[in-house]
Amino acid sequence: QVGSKSGWYESGLWHAVKNRNNLLLGARANMYTLYIPGGTRGDLDYNGYNRQQNNIVKYNGTAYSSLPAFYAGAGMEQHGIEVTLAAFVQGVWPANADWEPTTGYGPAYAPTDFDLQLSPTSVAADRGQVLANINDGFTGAAPDLGVYERGKPVPWYGPRTSVDVA
Questions:
Q1: For 100-130, how does the pLDDT look when each residue is reduced to its tens digit (9 = 90+)?
Q2: Burial level of 56, CB count in 10 A (0-12/13-18/19+)?
Q3: Can you tell me the distance from the alpha carbon of 80 to that of 107, in angstroms, rounded to the nearest whole number?
């Protein structure tokens, strides 16, 4: 997920979350924030985070300056990595990080404006965890982080200009 603000923000609505193999990038606040009451029902690992500020993650009200510090302090993200937009073939930050009363978030983007497949040299390649029946068809040494697996066709969602007839 490439967001205009935080890579991901959650404020106490999730319980017993297990989060794997995601890429969480934020253009501005960039802090992955997760609050799970009690602090013990979260299970975060094998995710990629970007850095736009001193702290890379905030969990249950505590900010951590690095993923190793997050692991030492909260026991989360032992296998997490830092990533940048260079992880993608063509990733860019959204034009407007905030809603503007006159223009909203700016003009709409076309699907061809971005290519969020991993670049050939991406640090996120082969860094995921195998999840049975979800990503066990990976192509490298391990699943890739993010939505697309390198070497696999990119799925097409939404309207099509032609119809496949069986």
A1: 777 777 777 787 888 889 999 999 999 999 9
A2: buried
A3: 34
